[in-house]
């Protein structure tokens, strides 16, 4: 009877034509054969889509989630913020002129030709100071150092050799803050005259005479010639006749 029952069971499976799904053991798990077949088909389809997408990647094609290839054109993204900052008329009737005649917008002083009134000081202002109305502002000119002194005065003396006006040189030197470099004015003038003509040396003598007492003092002139005698070995390199001159 057991043999008959077993034969009946197997024969029943064969007669039903596989009504119950056959299961295959993979990694210790029993998986229906139909699901394995479907997984193989899906994997093959994905490999085919991946191959087609890599081939058509430069042509603007895209692949949907269902695996269908879609032809898409290049669309330029539009930003809503860009439309808000657009100064053109939305109705299309604007003439393209600046708003408020050029007086509107950030960092604009106002319309051309506009004159502002003098702002009156508010006495009730908590930051008001009584002494601010009596302030006197003066322009402070920094004293020249040795490097800036030579760079500034060399063109002035060279121009003097052209026009010969000692008053002009005196006015230009008064606008400068010579400080302790006053004695260097005759030193620089004589050094430039040694490299020039005889007329330049005579003009330099007249310039030192006119500047003495106005721009430089007598003590400054004495100090300048002491400096020239000490620098004489260096002056001979540029002007060999410097001691005689």
UniProtKB/TrEMBL annotation:
SUPFAM superfamilies, sorted: ARM repeat
Compositional bias annotation for Basic residues: 43-52
One term under GO cellular component: nucleus
A Pfam family assignment: MA3
GO terms, molecular function: RNA binding
Cross-referenced SMART domains: MA3
Coiled coil regions in record: none
GO biological process, one term: negative regulation of DNA-templated transcription
Main location: cytoplasm
Keyword Transcription among record annotations: no
Residue spans of biased composition, Polar residues class: 63-72
InterPro entries, alphabetized: ARM-type_fold, Initiation_fac_eIF4g_MI, PDCD4
Subcellular location: Cytoplasm; Nucleus
Family listed: Belongs to the PDCD4 family.
Official protein name in the record: Programmed cell death protein 4
Source organism phylogeny: Eukaryota, Metazoa, Chordata, Craniata, Vertebrata
Gene behind the chain: Pdcd4_1
